[in-house]
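Project outcomes to date are best conveyed with an example. Our students and postdoctoral researchers have been running inverse folding experiments weekly, and each run begins with a structure described purely in C-alpha cells. The record below, which covers 726 residues, was selected by the lab manager from last quarter's runs and is presented without edits.
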C-alpha cells in the first residue's frame, strides 16, 4: 500500500519541502509538500526526478576493487582493511599531506557526511583539502571572512521590504533566488514587489529570462563587474547617498574614499562596456531608493575578478545603510552560533599550497592546483586521493590534465552513487547514500535561511541492504588505521565502547552516531529542543526576522565591519591601475556559463528524465557573430581556447551580447558500468576543457568559468548523440 512521507530536497540551497509517495520502498512520485512551513513553491524537475538516481541501473551497491581492467565486488571489511593499510604506508613513507581529499557538491548537504570526512582528514593530519567551493563560492566566503570575521556569515536577502533589487550575474528565474543563502520563492516575491513599485535591475552579458522581466538590463562585458560596481560606488560617495552611521561604524571607510577618488568614471565605463550615463542612472536609483539590496551570484564569482566584485557588492550595501537593515541583506543568527563554532572547530589555514605557493582559501587548496600537486615530485607530493561525492574532471577546469594526473596516483578511492568521469581510474569504488535515504539534521543551515527556520530530514526510502553511510565508512577507516577522529586522542575509544554497549544490550541506538554531535550543538545553542524539531515533519518557522545581529556577532579583531580588507583593497587598486582588457586576436570571443532550471553542475545531468529530448549542451551566440563565422542554428561549432577544444551545436540568439558565447558546464561526464558489461553513457560535452587551471582569481583561486577567451569555427562533424541508458 502506498504512503506519503515528508522530507526536503537536498540538491540546492532552496531545500524545498517535498512529499514522496512510497510503495514497496520505491518512490513512485515526488511532489511539493504543500503543507510545508517554509518553502515548496520552488519545487522543480530536479527534485521530481530524484528517484532516477536511487534506481539508476548502474548504481553502486557494494565496494568494488579494481582488478586489472575490471572491478570486482568486495566486502566492507576488505575495503576498509586494504585502503587503510595502503594509506598508512603512504603516510609513513611520504607524510600525511601525501593523502588528499576532494569534496563535491552533495557532500555539503549532509552534515554527517561533511563532518566525518573532515574528522577523518584531521585524524590523519593532512592539509591536502580540496572542495567544490574553489570553482564557485569561495570568493563570497572569503569576503565574509575578511569583512565580518567568519566565512560562515553570509548575509541573506530581505526580499519583502526591498524597493530596489540590484542583481549582478544571477538568473533567479532559472536558478531560484539562492546562492550560499536562500530566499524561498524569492523570484516570484521580487516580481510581486516590482508590481508594487519596486525596481529590478539585472546585470548580465545575456538577456536571461530574469533580465526579460527587469526594469533595467545592463549587458556587461564578462569579468568587468568590478568596474561597474566601483563606478557606482564613486557616484554614490560623490553625491552623498550614504548612511553616515553605517560608514562611521566600519573600519576602513576612508580607504573607499581614496579608491574612488583615483577612479575615472569614463574609464570604468569603457572597461565594463556600459555607457557612463547608464551607470549614473542605476547608481542614483540604488543610492536614493528607500530600501535596496545588491546581490551577486556565480556570474561574478566565476571570473578572474570575482572576489573584488563580491566585495564591492557588499560595500555598496554597507555604505548606503542596507547591511542588516530591512529590505537589504541581513544576518540570520540561526539556532546555533555557526560562526563561532566554525571559528573554534575549523582547522587553521596553512599559509600556502606546496607547488604554486598560492594562499589557501577557507583552509582548502584550489581544485585548479590538484594536477600539479599529484605530478610534481618532492616532499608532500600527493600519492593518494579520495574523491568524495564529486566529479572534478568535469566540474573543474582543464579536465584532461587532471584526468592524466589521476592515473599517476598510487591509490584513488571514489565515493559516489555511480561511477562517473572522474572515477574511471579509481582503485576502489565506494557506494554512497542518496539523500532520499538519509535521516539527517543539518544545524549549519540555520544561518543561511531568510527566516528563522529548521527542519529534520526524515528518510523517505530505506537504502539498499548493506550500504554504509559515508560517515560510518570514514569512522571505520579511522578505527582501522588507528588514527583518532577529529585528531582528538580518546575519541575512537568512545566510538568503540558505544558499539560494544549497543551490541551487548541489543539497542543499536546506543552506538555512536552523528546525532550525538548535532544534539550537543543544539544544547550549546540553547534556542531549540530536539523533540520539538522532530515533531514537525513539515518544518518549523520558530521565530521572526531580526535586524542588527550582525554587529553583535562579528568575529573581526576589532569587532567592527572591515570595509576595506587589506588584500582585497590592494587587488582593487591593482585592477584600477591595470590597462583595460583588449580582445585576443587568436581567441576573440568570451565564453560564459549559464544556468538552466533542470541543471545542477555535473551532479544531475546524466538523468534522462530531466531533459526530455535534449541530450547535449549548446553554444549560444549573437546573430552578428554567427553570421560573420558562417554559422546557423543547428550547425556544429569547433570551440577552441589556449587550453583545449570541444564541439558544440550552435544556437543563434539575439539575447547574447556581441562578442560573448554561452554554454553551461556540467555536461560531458560518462557514466560507466563498473562490471564492464556495457559501454559508458554520455550526455553533452565538457566545455570546461576550454578553461585554464592556471589563470585564477588571485584571491579566491577560482578559475575563469565566466570570461574564457575562445575562438569559434564551423566543425565538420555532427554533435555526439547520447547512448541509451542501460
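After processing, the design step wrote out the following sequence:
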Amino acid at each position: 500500500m502506498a504512503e506519503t512521507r515528508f522530507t526536503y530536497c537536498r540538491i540546492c540551497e532552496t531545500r524545498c519541502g517535498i512529499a514522496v509517495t512510497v510503495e514497496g520502498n520505491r518512490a513512485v512520485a515526488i511532489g511539493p509538500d504543500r503543507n510545508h512551513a517554509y518553502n515548496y513553491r520552488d519545487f522543480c524537475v530536479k527534485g521530481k526526478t530524484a528517484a532516477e538516481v536511487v534506481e539508476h541501473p548502474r548504481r553502486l551497491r557494494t565496494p568494488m576493487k579494481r582488478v586489472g581492467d575490471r572491478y570486482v565486488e568486495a566486502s566492507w571489511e576488505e575495503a576498509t582493511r586494504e585502503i587503510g593499510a595502503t594509506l598508512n604506508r603512504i603516510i609513513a613513507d611520504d607524510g600525511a599531506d601525501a593523502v588528499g581529499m576532494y569534496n563535491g557538491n552533495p557532500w555539503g548537504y549532509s552534515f554527517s557526511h561533511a563532518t566525518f570526512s573532515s574528522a577523518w582528514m584531521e585524524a590523519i593530519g593532512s592539509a591536502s583539502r580540496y572542495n567544490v567551493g574553489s570553482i564557485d563560492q569561495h570568493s563570497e566566503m572569503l569576503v565574509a571572512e575578511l569583512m565580518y570575521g567568519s566565512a560562515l556569515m553570509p548575509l541573506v536577502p530581505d526580499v519583502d521590504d526591498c524597493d530596489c533589487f540590484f542583481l549582478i550575474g544571477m538568473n533567479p528565474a532559472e536558478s531560484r533566488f539562492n546562492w550560499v543563502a536562500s530566499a524561498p520563492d524569492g523570484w516570484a516575491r521580487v516580481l510581486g514587489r516590482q508590481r508594487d513599485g519596486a525596481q529590478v535591475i539585472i546585470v548580465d552579458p545575456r538577456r536571461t529570462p530574469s533580465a526579460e522581466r527587469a526594469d533595467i538590463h545592463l549587458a556587461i562585458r564578462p569579468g568587468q563587474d568590478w568596474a561597474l560596481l566601483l563606478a557606482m560606488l564613486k557616484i554614490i560617495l560623490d553625491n552623498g547617498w550614504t548612511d553616515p552611521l553605517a560608514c562611521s561604524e566600519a573600519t576602513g571607510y576612508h580607504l573607499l574614499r581614496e579608491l574612488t577618488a583615483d577612479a575615472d568614471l569614463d574609464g570604468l565605463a569603457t572597461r565594463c562596456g556600459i555607457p557612463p550615463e547608464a551607470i549614473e542612472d542605476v547608481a542614483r536609483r540604488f543610492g536614493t531608493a528607500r530600501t535596496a539590496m545588491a546581490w551577486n551570484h556565480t556570474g561574478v564569482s566565476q571570473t578572474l575578478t570575482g572576489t573584488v566584485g563580491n566585495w564591492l557588492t557588499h560595500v555598496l550595501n554597507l555604505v548606503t545603510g542596507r547591511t542588516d537593515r530591512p529590505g537589504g541583506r541581513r544576518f540570520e543568527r540561526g539556532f546555533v552560533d555557526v560562526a563561532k563554532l566554525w571559528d573554534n572547530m575549523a582547522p587553521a589555514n596553512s599559509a600556502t599550497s606546496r607547488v604554486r605557493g598560492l594562499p589557501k582559501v577557507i583552509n582548502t587548496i584550489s581544485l585548479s592546483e590538484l594536477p600539479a600537486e599529484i605530478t610534481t615530485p618532492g616532499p608532500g607530493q600527493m600519492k593518494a586521493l579520495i574523491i568524495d561525492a564529486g566529479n572534478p574532471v568535469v566540474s573543474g577546469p582543464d579536465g584532461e590534465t587532471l584526468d592524466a594526473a589521476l592515473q599517476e596516483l598510487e591509490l584513488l578511492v571514489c565515493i559516489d552513487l555511480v561511477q562517473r568521469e572522474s572515477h574511471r581510474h579509481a582503485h576502489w569504488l565506494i557506494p554512497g547514500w542518496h539523500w532520499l535515504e538519509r535521516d539527517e539534521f543539518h544545524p549549519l543551515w540555520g544561518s543561511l535561511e531568510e527566516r528563522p527556520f529548521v527542519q529534520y530530514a526524515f528518510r523517505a526510502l530505506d537504502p539498499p541492504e548493506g550500504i554504509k553511510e559515508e560517515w560510518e565508512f570514514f569512522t571505520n577507516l579511522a578505527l582501522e588505521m588507528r588514527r583518532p577522529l577529529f585528531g582528538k586522542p580518546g575519541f575512537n575509544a568512545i566510538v568503540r565502547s558505544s558499539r560494544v554497549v549497543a551490541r551487548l544490550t541489543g539497542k543499536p541506538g546506543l552506538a555512536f552516531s552523528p546525532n550525538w554531535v548535532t544534539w550537543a550543538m543544539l544544547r550549546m545553542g540553547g534556542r531549540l529542543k530536539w523533540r520539538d524539531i522532530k515533531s514537525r515533519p513539515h518544518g518549523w518557522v520558530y521565530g521572526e526576522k531580526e535586524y542588527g545581529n550582525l554587529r553583535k556577532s562579528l568575529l573581526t579583531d576589532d569587532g567592527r565591519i572591515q570595509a576595506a580588507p587589506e588584500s582585497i583593497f590592494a587587488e582593487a587598486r591593482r585592477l584600477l591601475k591595470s590597462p583595460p582588457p583588449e580582445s585576443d586576436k587568436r581567441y576573440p570571443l568570451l565564453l560564459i556559463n549559464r544556468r538552466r532550471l533542470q541543471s545542477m553542475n555535473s551532479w544531475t545531468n546524466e538523468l534522462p528524465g530531466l531533459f526530455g529530448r535534449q541530450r547535449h549542451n549548446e553554444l549560444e551566440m549573437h546573430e552578428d557573430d554567427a553570421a560573420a563565422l558562417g554559422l546557423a542554428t543547428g550547425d556544429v561549432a569547433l570551440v577552441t581556447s589556449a587550453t583545449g577544444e570541444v564541439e558544440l551545436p550552435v544556437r543563434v540568439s539575439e539575447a547574447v551580447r556581441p562578442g560573448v558565447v554561452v554554454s553551461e558546464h556540467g555536461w560531458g561526464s560518462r557514466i560507466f558500468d563498473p562490471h564492464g558489461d556495457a559501454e559508458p553513457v554520455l550526455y553533452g560535452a565538457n566545455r570546461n576543457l576550454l578553461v585554464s587551471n592556471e589563470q585564477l582569481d588571485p584571491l579566491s583561486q577560482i578559475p575563469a568559468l565566466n570570461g574564457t577567451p575562445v575562438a569559434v569555427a564551423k566543425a565538420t562533424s555532427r554533435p555526439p548523440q547520447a547512448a541509451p541508458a542501460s
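Residues 582-726 form a domain with the Barwin-like endoglucanases fold (CATH 2.40.40.20). The CA atoms of residues 459 and 508 lie 18 Å apart. The training component of this project remains on track.
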